[in-house]
TrEMBL record:
Keywords: Repeat, TPR repeat
Domain of life: Eukaryota
Record-level Gene Ontology MF annotations: DNA-binding transcription factor activity; Hsp90 protein binding
UniProt biased composition (Low complexity): 41-50, 307-321
Record-given protein name: Hsc70/Hsp90-organizing protein, putative
Stretches forming TPR repeats: 180-213, 335-368, 410-443, 470-503, 504-537, 538-571
Residue intervals of the K-box domain: 81-178
One GO location term (cellular component): nucleus
Annotated stretches, region: Disordered: 30-50, 305-343
Amino acid sequence: MRSQPICTNPQTLRIDAASEFKNLAAAAAAPEQPLVKRTRQQLQQQPQLQQRRKQLQQEQQQLQQEQRQLQQEQRQLQQEQQQLQQEQQQLQQEQRQLQQEQQQLQQEQQQLQQEQQQLQQEQQQLQQEQQQLQQEQRQLQQEQQQLQQEQQQLQQEQQQLQQEQQQLQQEQQQLHQGSTRGYSRKGLAEFNLGRLGEAERSYSKGLELEPSNEGLQKGLKEVQQSGASLRDMHALWAVSTALNRHPKLLKYSQQDPNYSKTLAKLLSQVQANPSSLRLVMAQPDVRIREGMTVLLGGTLEEEEEPAAAAAASGAAAAAAAQQPPKELTPEQQQAEAKKKEGNELYKQRKFEEALKAYDEAIALDPNQLLYLNNKAAVYMEMGDFENCLKECEKALEKRYEVKADYEVVAKVYNRMAACFARQKEFEKAIEMYEKSLCESNTRQTRAALAEVKRLKEKADREAYVDPQKAEEHKLKGNEFFKNNDFPSAKKEYDEAILRNPKDAKLYSNRAAALTKLFEYPSALKDCETALSLDPSFVKAWSRKGTLHFLLKEYPKALEAFEKGLKIDPSSKECLEGKMQVIRKVQQQQQTGEVDEEQMRHAMADPEIQQILRDPQMSIVLQNAQENPALLKE
């Protein structure tokens, strides 16, 4: 038999094996063939079958190997695919990083552009500041020239003063030589000029030298009598003016004919001896106290409250003084009686009974708006602000119906304003006071409006306080200060102080900025404020001493540094400042130079001005200038 080619296809091998098995089965099933023939055929076919089986087994093994190879290749492919995926992910990440870097580069470019713009703006600002500095330097030069001119004028004035002092010294020498005639002539001249006080002093000095001189005694007596009569005349004129301006005082004088004379006498007494004012104002008579209050520049309270509602208002009283009083109907008289009853109950703080009395008065005379106003006052004292405002609104609704006086309407608005002020609704209170002024412009209402505005400003400042924001502005100011932007630093410190006005460090920081801006007086004021808040603040003492040094006020500078060292003996700033002051003073003592600016500051010192006003000190200083050896003695 011819050997068949080995087929590597598994499917064809299965088909061939199946056909051979079918042939064998058919041969076995054929009855007509003889047994020997079948057996021979089978024997012949067995080697072929065995070879075929071996071939099949080999092919199966090859197939299994190929399958294994395929599986390995598939695994390799999967690994390669995974590697490709990882590489793709890495590429994507790198692309993202590149995009981010590009965005960062763009942002940096924008920032650079902004910084360039800022630099340009800063350069422009610097140029402007340089121009301003140049202008300020020119102004300073002009001011220096003006100061030099003023110094020359001062020197001329000092020379004139020295001449006058010399003349006075000569006169004093003549007077001290026992010449009572000079005091007599001087007193007479001063008396003729109307200088009664100076004349009295001249006569008194003459009497000290010669107590028995009749001429001096007579002159002194005439001066005292003239002074007393002049004071009495002025006192009577002042009392007459006060009575014409205040109907309430005029009413008192009509009730008591001696009222005006008593007031004039007391006023003259107070003018002659001011220390007697306390005794005069302690008198039990209320009329005297009110009259003296007006004469001394005070004001009478308007009778808006029920406690004082029995008297008419200033304008109503003035009108009543010019016109005869209106006759009241029986109902109106009863209403007035109930109102007075309510006023008394109000004084006793019996508010419920007072409300009933005012209700009865309103029922008898519903056209009188003051009864509603008094009722509103009771509610306000009770703390019932809602009903207080309702009563005022009722009164305002009826104002045109009853043709109410402007003064009465103004009082109603004042009541509403006071009610809003008690509730701390200052905006509404201000509005009501302004409406009141439109009705009747009185000094008391203007004062109340000013007080409410002050309270509103105080409340606004307190509401504006925020220590956290103050700290933020302080830090911003510190940054500006480090960058030498002192105007911006000062602005930040200003805002920080508004946010926290009780922080001493903020005033000290602003003083540092003001010092850099050469605003020494303002910086010194801030240091003093910081020390008033915290007397143990060493840095504030150091800055205060530095400012006094810059102002060439060396004694004050030394005092400030020493106070700082008492608190902290190791303070470097105070130690260096103290040594600097000592060196400067020693230098001046050695050279004998006099700093004009230092002299100007010294002359502006209130204490030195007070000393220079003393005639005796002026004489001593003049003698010291003429003969410096006196100072050593």
